């Protein structure tokens, strides 16, 4: 089951997707849209979290609120990521 979330209201109308396991992560990659931006904990097992941008937007248009919602979901769904906040590496 793929999980769907709405970003916090003040961050705007964005849908965030998250796979439950590696199989769902593969499905999200396979059926993703060009507007999807992917988040995960670098070099560690973690959920794959995607935010779907609006047509014409780029990664530079992601607000701090949407960014925080995505990274909090990634962190909360990574055993190792929960232990050490220094685990995060954004590219």
TrEMBL record:
Domain called NFACT RNA-binding: residue spans: 1-86
Transmembrane segments: none
Pfam families (alphabetical): NFACT-R_1 (PF05670)
Family statement: Belongs to the CCDC25 family.
Protein name, as recorded: NFACT RNA-binding domain-containing protein
């Amino acid at each position: 089951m793929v999980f769907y979330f709405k970003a916090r209201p003040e961050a705007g109308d964005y849908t965030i997707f998250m796979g439950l396991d590696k199989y769902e992560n593969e499905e999200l990659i396979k059926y993703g849209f060009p507007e999807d931006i992917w988040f995960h904990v670098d070099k560690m097992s973690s959920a794959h979290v995607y935010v779907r941008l609006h047509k014409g937007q780029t990664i530079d248009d992601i607000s701090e609120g949407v960014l925080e919602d995505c990274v909090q979901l990634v962190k909360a769904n990574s055993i190792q990521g929960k232990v050490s906040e220094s685990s995060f590496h954004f590219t």
